[in-house]
């Protein structure tokens, strides 16, 4: 592997997700190397660089983005800075892996259409690169489940810290933007289409003003429904299942699958209502962030293609917009297509 060409990454900020999960995962990608990290505070950047063994630290985002020694930027900044800094990196000739959600609204996301097209922009839904997601879709496509008419999901955690960015409404906090985007991605990934309309019931935190609990139904047409519950103030839980006319598939730990232990999908024909007759398919351990980084690196190096880009990210934001519109009106909201 000594002669393997590698994509040189710069990490934009010392955000927790980057430090704890994504940056170490990028470092494990065969075609990637992390060469720099930037923060608005040089000491903080230097500490982060030392901790992870990254060669260079920058004391401003601008310095990192303009460095000629960097090919790609990972952007894990708070939601309201995703588009702005992604466009800045793109203008500097960098490929960008941007944390989800790519923006706060579809209008915000549409600004990414002005980006230079010869550089990649990918919204970091790592789940789409995990073996269990790919295998579950394979099973669904095979017809074993019959006609899949329902995707059902729960994603919850408890975080009532007023200083946490997820609890700051003015910079894109709240459960729907933080984790609601995952079940939405699940519905789109498995139905392989876009919803026509959505309806939502949303409860907001009286102090934060953020959506702390939301139930959503998304109508994908032809009787196909995505239903999900997300919350930032319930006990931690996550589930995702596909229900068809002949069987169902359940993904075990669908969103935060551990990187170092095997995962599984359950395939159940309903012969025993307690699930005891289900087939359990074991997937070998894989780091979904590394899988995503490797796919991104290969595409950036001209050795592969990515199935997702700016238009995919805008479509996801249109669905989130419609969910918030339904919250306001108490009625079904159409999902825009532009």
Describe this protein with a few key phrases.
338 residues; Rossmann fold; Dihydrodipicolinate Reductase, domain 2; nine-stranded mixed beta sheet; six-stranded parallel beta sheet; 15 strands
Task: Provide the fold topology.
Layout: E1 7-12, H1 16-27, E2 32-38, H2 42-52, E3 56-58, H3 61-66, E4 72-75, H4 82-91, E5 95-98, H5 106-110, E6 121-123, H6 131-142, E7 148-158, H7 175-191, E8 197-204, E9 211-219, E10 225-231, E11 233-244, E12 248-251, E13 263-268, E14 279-283, H8 288-300, H9 310-329, E15 333-334
Low-confidence stretches: none
- Sheet of most strands: 9 strands, mixed
Total of helices? 9
Query: What is the end-to-end distance?
Result: 44 Å
Name of the CATH first level of the largest domain: Alpha Beta
- Structural classification: alpha/beta
Give the C-alpha Rg: 20 Å
Fourth-tier CATH superfamily name of the largest domain? Dihydrodipicolinate Reductase, domain 2
